[in-house]
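User: quick one
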Amino acid sequence: MNKDLLSILDLSKEELDSLLDLASSLKATRASGALTSHLPGKSLGMIFEKASTRTRISFEVGMYELGGTALFLNSQDMQLGRGEEIRDTARILSRYVSAIMIRAYKHSTIEEMARFATIPVINGLSDREHPCQLLADILTLRQHFGSTEDLTVAWVGDGNNVCNSLILSATLAGYAVRVAAPDGYLPPAELVEEATARGGRVTLAATPREAVRDADVIYTDTWISMGSEHERNKRVSSFAGYTVDQDLVDKAAPDAVVLHCLPAHRGEEISDEVMEGEKSLIWDQAENRLHAQKALLVQLIGEK
Ligand code: CP
Ligand code: NVA
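Assistant: Done. Structure below.
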């Protein structure tokens, strides 16, 4: 396994499968009330440049449940916020903690952290990718459908960091990905090409309806990612017609499910009816962040 998880493609198909097997087993053990103390004495430094609910809490509780500890580090409260260099921070943290999880605006910040850290670095979301989210998403689909190989996943909305990881994950999970995004908000062409070159089945759809037709999964995310708040008005008007509502969900396969990485904005990218509806797997998906990341931590820093 690679030292770091910066991209979902840092995992091979076999590594992803074994990580998800472990996640399922950790989930079952936790449900039985038994302890899962695989990481006694280990610590995770969690650096955040941006807000978080799920990533912060699931990593923190995950480390606690594994018998280790996690430190919440707001980058603005660190010397990083006063200009200390990433490479120096990386080398110092490597002497204190067992792994670093970092949520940053720029993907290059996370890459630099990984280059200079001698310990594993986990991407907790960047402008390019959100690999930890996809671990939970694939676990959720695997547990619901039994396998992800023959599914079609329709992404409706912004071609953003989560969409990018979904596209790349097609090469690992085997599902076909159809993306419907307005002009100007498509995922980067080079990323779609990379997924396709690696055997991923990825297509761009002209409309949300075309994307979801007979799809097994409909996935959406905010139209206004962290850092894009100043574009709110322009984005809300560009995404008109891209709301995942009941009418759109009814165009998908009869047993289709709906995913959203959260936080959600009801009435924008998703309707309240769909969020609360029977096809929503959103709450299981959020819970699975915990189980998938515990498995990731065990694989990255557990005793070999
Ligand atoms: N989905 C996700 O990463 O949520 P947070 O921003 O709350 O961590
Ligand atoms: N695309 C969103 C995901 C948040 C978990 C963002 O980057 O803000």
